[in-house]
Amino acid sequence: MHGGNQTGVSDFLLLGISENPEQERVLFWMFLSMYLVTVVGNMSIILAIGSDSRLHTPMYFFLANLSFTDLFFVTNTIPKMLVNLQSQNKAISYSGCLTQLYFLVSLVTLDNLILATMAYDRYVAICRPLHYVTVMSPGLCILLLTSCWALAVLYGLMLTLLMTKVTFCGSRKIHYIFCEMYVLLRLACSNTQITHTVLITTGIFIFLTPFGFMMVSYVRIVRAILRIPSASSKYKAFSTCGSHLAVVSLFYGTLCMVYLQPIQTYSMKDSVATVMYAVVTPMMNPFIYSLRNKDMHGALGRLFRGKGFQRLT
C-alpha cells in the first residue's frame, strides 16, 4: 500500500456492513436468498417475454432489457459480497475494484435510461394511440436501446478513467458492500475536487434529465387519461403505467437517499440505503411488473406449465 500514486495500491479491503461474525452469517443467508430470488425473478421475466409472441411489443422489449440489466447488476456485486461474508480474506484488487465500479456506474446509468425510454413508450401508447405502431417501430426501439447502452458504457468508462487519476494512500478499508465512487473518493489522499465536480455535473445530466423527461411524460399521460370518458378505460390506462411509476419511485427514491448529500457526510450508515437500490430494487422489479399485469401472469403461467410438462415427458 505504500507508494505515491494509485499504481502502488495492491488491493482494498471490502469490510461490508458488519464485521461481527454472527451478524455476517445472518447477512450471508439474507443476501444469498435475495440474490436467488432476484435471479429467478428476472430470468423468469426474460424467458416469459422471449417465449410468448404476444409479448413481443415495445413495452415488454424494454422490460426484458431492464430485467437483464438488473440481473447483470446484482451479479456484479452480490457474489463477491457473499464470498467476503464467508471468508477471512476480504481483499479486492485495485483492478478488480475499478472493474466493479465500471459495471456499477454503467448498469445504474443503463437502468435509469431504460426507465426513461419506457416512460416515452407509455406516453406514445396513451397520448398518441393511433400512431403508436408507426412511432414505436422495431427500428426505433433498437435505436433507443442502443443509444442507452452506448451512453451508459461511455459514462461508466469516463468515471472509471477519472478514478485512475486519483491517488490512494493510508487506509485501504472500505466500510461498504462494494467499490463505490463516493467511498473511494473518501480514501483518496490527492485533491479530488475536479473528480467530484465532474461526478456531480455529469450526474445531474445523466440522471436528472431522464427523470425530468419522465415527469413531463407522466403529466401529459395523466391529462390524457383524465379526458377518457369511460371509467374502465381510465383504470386500464392507469394500470399500464402504475407498475412503471412504482419502479421509478423505488429507483430514484433509494438513489436520492444515497447520493443527495455532500461527500464529506458520506458514512457507513448509507450502506442500508445502498442495499435498497443495489439489492432490493432489482429483486422487487419482477414482482412489481407482474403483480397486476394479466399478460405477464399468462406468459409466466405458460412458461412454467411448459417447463413442468417437459419434465414430466
Tell me the β content.
Answer: under 5%
Number of helices: 10
> Structural class, from helix and strand content?
mainly alpha
Percent of residues in helices comes to over 70%
Shape: globular
Task: Give the neighbour order of strands across the main sheet.
Answer: 2-1-3
How would you summarize the topology of this molecule?
Elements: E1 11-14, H1 21-51, H2 58-86, E2 91-93, H3 94-127, H4 132-135, H5 138-163, E3 173-174, H6 181-187, H7 193-226, H8 231-259, H9 270-291, H10 294-312
Parallel strand pairs: 1-3
Antiparallel strand pairs: 1-2
Short description:
This protein has 313 residues and is mainly alpha-helical. The chain is 75% helix and 3% strand.
Q: How would you describe this structure to a colleague?
A:
This protein has 313 residues and is an all-alpha fold. The longest helix has 34 residues, at 94-127. The protein has a 3-stranded mixed beta sheet with strand order 2-1-3. It has 10 helices and 3 strands. The protein is globular.
Question: Which terms would index this structure?
Answer:
disordered N terminus, single chain, mainly alpha, 10 helices, 3-stranded mixed beta sheet, 3 strands, 313 residues, disordered C terminus
